Amino acid sequence: MTKYDAIVIGAGHNGLTNAAYLARAGLKVLVVERNPWIGGAAVSREIEKGWMYSNCSYVCSLLRPELFRDLELARHGLQVVPYGGGVSITSNGDILGNYTHEEVQRREFARHNPRDADAYDRYSTDVMRQCKFIRPMLLRTPPDPTSFKPRDLKEMIFLGKELKKFGEQFIYDTLRFYSMSIADFLNEYFESDTIKCHLSGSGIIGSAMGVYSPGTAYVLLHHYMGDVDGSIGAWGFARGGMGAVSKSIANALKSFGGEIVVDAPVRQVIVKGGRVAGVATENGTEYYADVVVSNLDPRRTYTKIFDPKDLPPVIVEKAKNWKIRGSSGKLNIALDGLPEFPALGKDNPLAFGDIHFLDSLEKMERAYDDWKNGTWSKEPYLDLLIPSMTDPTMAPPGKHFMSVFVQYVPPFIHGREWTDADREGFKNTVLDQIGRYSPNFRSLVRHVECRTPRELEAEVGLTEGNIFHGELTMDQLLFNRPFPGYAQYRGPIRGFYMCGSGTHPGGGVMSAPGANAAREILMDLGRPNIVPEGWSDD
Fold first, then answer.
1. Which of 13, 136, 142, 326 qualifies as a cystine partner to 465, CB 3.0-4.6 A?
2. Residue 310 phi/psi, 5° resolution?
3. Phi, psi values for residue 99, rounded to 5°
4. Whole-angstrom Cα distance, residue 414 to residue 343?
5. Pairing between strand 235-238 and 80-83?
6. C-alpha to C-alpha distance for 257 and 28, rounded to whole angstroms
7. How far apart are the C-alpha atoms of 428 and 411, rounded to whole Å?
8. Whole-model pTM above 0.85?
9. Which residues are CB-contacts of 527 (< 8 A; sequence separation ≥ 6)?
């Protein structure tokens, strides 16, 4: 019988990151994955021959640069290609461009509203201040505010000092910001509804909340605090699709001696004498270790792969009540050519970025109303990209791959399960909306992979299709993520840890939860000196 030092459940990017750091520290590590492939939601798959789909996550920005360096991901094949710009096409045929050049962006905003051009400078400054405050927290373990342990007190003092650096007014602004809706936040800066709508999308992506829902201002910040090549807020494509991120981390893991087993869904975490002893898979194989780490979401972890008798009842109850409402869908489309968008004209560089179609906060909120009524949005918010324009490896020569992320898509249709007919209706709603702005689009469609929350849960393991493993609201952030008293990656059973997006600092292809959990495990094993440089709590 082979015994490991640590077993990680789930080969998503956080699980692979956690395993890579543990293996880097000299531990014998095994990752068990239920699917025949690795990557979880950060995966590239050839669904249509010749086309490589990023069929869940689709852009890269939040991946921490410290991790990139520590694990030498470039050496293991990861290349992130930045893309610039983006555009909202309005219903009257106009556009609002999102340019990387500061002066060009100012002129574009001034074209829609002169006062908003000045307001954008103030808006950008305020949002970047929030980013500068939160970014150092991403790679730190959140303190327990009820604890008097020296480490927690030290971390609380650190937070206080960081807040003090920005001044008294910033503290007031931060408390308001974290509880505001994105619409109310943008209303304090801008007059143009088109500009407000364009900027509001980052506040609702992946969340079962509307633009007027409290807490969505923070969701915008969550999407702004990444970077590509040191450019804060920039986004890029992983060359070869998002699976290249997972593949490079897996290569790093293997270079440190770690192992990965696929087609091995975990049936149960083995608990003996009040501590973990390993995992049992559905095919009857058992693997043993004194440390078990779950990359699954909190609800799935504590209600699916544990015997309830092995857990405190309060944990089971908290897991059942974990707020994890699905709200997103995804279409991956193989195209026989490049769609034309008349509003953009020919060879417009804005087409290399995100393309959106809604142009008012009212339309954004009505899209959310459909979700609340138990159906997909009849005029959805789309985050549309054509990655093959930047990364030609994703489609055959002359062909293209289109990624379409969709809000809002409920986990159930009027309280019942999705049917294939529902999925077809949802798919056609999205295709029709794109077709209204691109006359030749429909004629170019060769293949469509349509993923509703039903497919995201069944195929990827995202409960209800929630891409963040749980809502990013104040009641589920920092020391509340996933539960008060269990926000430092340790579970209720000795030797058990969590490392997925349901832990601090949350979702996105960031890998910070996986790395932070590895630090805590190494400290518990008496190996704090092996924690990678720059990741300590000092």
1. 326
2. -85, -5
3. -100, 150
4. 36
5. antiparallel
6. 7
7. 18
8. yes
9. 25, 26
Beta strands 3-9; 29-32: pairing state = parallel
Identify the pLDDT of residue 67: 87
The β-bridge partners of 39 are 12
Please tell me the distance from the alpha carbon of residue 403 to that of residue 44, in angstroms, as a whole number.
Answer: 12
Residue 328 is inside which H or E element, if any? strand 328-335
Contact 335, 399 (CB under 8 A): yes
User: Whole-angstrom Cα distance, residue 440 to residue 340?
Assistant: 6
Tokens of 297: 């979401």
């090549």: which residue's tokens? Answer: 229
247's tokens: 């593949």
- Beta-bridged to residue 44, according to DSSP, are 54
DSSP string, 129-142: HHHHHHGGGTTSPP
**418 CB neighbour count, 10 Å cutoff:** 19
Q: Which domains does the chain have, with CATH numbers?
A: 3-43+57-80+239-322+465-530 (3.50.50.60)
Say whether 42 sits in a helix, a strand or coil: coil
Q: Which residues contact 375 (CB under 8 A, 6 or more apart)?
A: 410, 413, 414
- Residues whose CB falls within 8 Å of the CB of residue 509, separated by 6 or more in sequence, listed in order: 13, 41, 42, 57, 60, 62, 63, 242, 245
pLDDT of residue 137: 87
Between 537 and 431, the higher pLDDT residue: 431
Output the CA–CA distances (angstroms, integers) from residue 416 to 124, 330, 411, in the order listed.
Answer: 43, 20, 9
User: pLDDT at position 437, please?
Assistant: 97
- Count of C-beta atoms within a 10 Å radius of residue 187: 13
Q: Which residues fall within 8 angstroms of residue 162, CB to CB, at 6 or more apart?
A: 133, 136
d(CA 403, CA 59): 10
Q: How far apart are CA 163 and CA 170, in angstroms?
A: 8
Mean of pLDDT values over 125-154: 90
Element (H, E) at 279: strand 275-281
Q: Rounded to whole angstroms, how far apart are CA atoms 201 and 457?
A: 24
Three-state SS for 179-242 is HCCHHHHHHCCCCCHHHHHHHHHHHCCCCCCCCCCCCHHHHHHHHHCCEECCEECCEEEECCCC
DSSP 455: H
Specify the range with the lowest mean pLDDT, choosing from 7-16, 257-266, 342-351, 405-414. Answer: 342-351
How far is the C-alpha of 24 from the C-alpha of 522, rounded, in Å? 11
Q: Tell me, what amino acid is at 75?
A: R
CA distance 164 to 160: 6
Say how many C-beta atoms besides its own lie within 10 A of residue 140's C-beta.
18
Residue 30 CA from chain centroid, whole number: 24
- Cβ(480)–Cβ(143) under 8 Å? no
Number of C-beta neighbours around residue 421 at 10 A: 9
Q: Does residue 534 surpass a pLDDT of 70?
A: no
Cα of first residue to Cα of last residue in the chain, in angstroms, is: 40
DSSP state, residue 418: -
